Amino acid sequence: HLLDDPQALVVSNYFNTQDTTLIIHIHYKEMKFLLLEQKYLERLDDQNVYDALFTLRKELTPLNHKREKVHQLSRYIMCESPEELRKLANWEGKGLYSRQKLMEKLQAYLPPSVMLPPRRLQTLLCQAVDMQKDRCPYHNTVNDTGLDSVSLLVDHRCTKDDFPSETRQILTDHCDEVWFCRFSNDGTKLATGSKDSTVMIWEVDPITLELRHLYTFEGHSYGVSFLAWSPDDNYLIACGPDDCSDLWVWNVQTGELRVKVSHSPEDSLTTCSWQKDGKKFVAGGTRGQFYQCDLDGNVLDSWEGVRVQCLCYRKDGKIVLAADTHHRIRGYNFEELADFNMIQEYHSIMSFTCDDSGKLALINVASQGVHLWDLDDRLLIRKFQGVTQGYYTIHSCFGGVNQVFVASGSEDNKVYVWHIKREEPIAVLKGHSRTVNCVSWNPKYPQMLASASDDTTVRIWGPASVKSQSCCSPNTLASLRSSCLITNSHQNSPSSKLHSATSSAATGSAVLPSSESANPSPNSSSPLIT
């Protein structure tokens, strides 16, 4: 065996296959040197100086390989004890451990047909487990890498109880249709935009994963239909519907309005996207406006005549993807003033989003549903089934661990969730009573999903294994809605729920939450789930 006689295979050059012979021809000297070095050190370790000198002079030196290393090896003859040798040579000594390390070095030059790679069985088992996890429709766990987290006795399969499929919390602070919701990039906050002219910022409790009302931004007279967090989560852009010619850039850390962007009353700024450095953003709308702006709202560049439905910066920070009114997504390079086709659909593109890798795009198509596209190959990968998509703008999202799930709202009042490799939904979440306009998956806590609806509520979905403590009963929810509608009609009355800050609604204002809890009572009888 090679460990019993470290020079046997290489020194005799005994191999059968042609590929192995070629490898040995290329690395012959290096492999032989490693084996003879081990032989030399072991003889010194046995204090057999005569045989060690023979190996050094008659076997190692004639190789004419690594002469400096040979000179270094020659100094070890002067060592007075095996302990001094091991310390000077940084060597473990004669035995199994040093020979195993030698084998690992040799394996870099030997093909698998001669010697199996190290820990090959463990590698095969890990591959099998990873494949099972990849095929598991509900696998959504972060810290379960390796073999310690699974049993080899049965195939891996997660239960639906650990998947976000139950209402954990209902946010009822908005007084009108909620058009948009988006978690921050670090997953610690949620922003919601509503027809009631407000943006609300919610903070995620890292222990309970419940949301606490942090700020209310007012002054969006046409309502808020789109929100975009800056890459560092310090700023939030709020856009309105088609009739809105303004957009607002809010400082989320201070709760103050940084700038209100308004260039012309004829503009329509309904969508936006941040550049990856957070110093620029693009904004546009269906009336032909398409701007690139800095943080102060100054227009740096513009593209004339592009009727924009939705925008998204690519990962390179140079190309902006824009869905237009011609059922297509085109790429725009503001630096080179170049544009090109990316995707062509046959019906109106209502919205789209890209995954973190920038390779996949999820598109909501009017009367067609949700489509998954490969942006690099420009190919339609999958059409997801089940969702009801008419001509309302519905915003879908990627989510879960490694973003292997897709979620979308629907006009049938439900939230649909698919595995990215399956066309049929793996979960249909019921609870909303009107169209679900937007969904957002928490990037930090993959078991947390938010949905915004025309029923004026935002629902937070979580695993069924953790029972909700924050869902209100139908009677309590109806009472809160009634109170909210009255408040919306009499905002100047002493009983108003919202307390305006010093800045005026015309320029936008931030409202801090009242001491009264923003969440429904935890003592309510049952969650509102159909």
Describe the structure.
Residues 500-530 have a biased composition (Low complexity). The chain is an alpha+beta fold and 530 residues long. It folds into two domains: 8-118; 167-511, 7 Propeller (Methylamine Dehydrogenase, Chain H). It has eight helices and 29 strands. Strand 4 and strand 5 form a beta hairpin. The protein is elongated, with a radius of gyration of 32 Å. Residues 1-7, 10-15, 467-508 and 513-530 have low confidence and may be disordered.
What's the total number of strands?
A: 29
Average pLDDT figure = 83
The appropriate CATH architecture of the largest domain is 7 Propeller
CATH superfamily of the largest domain: YVTN repeat-like/Quinoprotein amine dehydrogenase
Q: Which sheet architecture does the biggest sheet show?
A: 5 strands, antiparallel
| CATH fold node name of the largest domain | Methylamine Dehydrogenase, Chain H
Strand order of the largest sheet: 2-3-4-5-29
Work out the strand percent. 25-35%
Tell me the distance between the termini: 70 Å
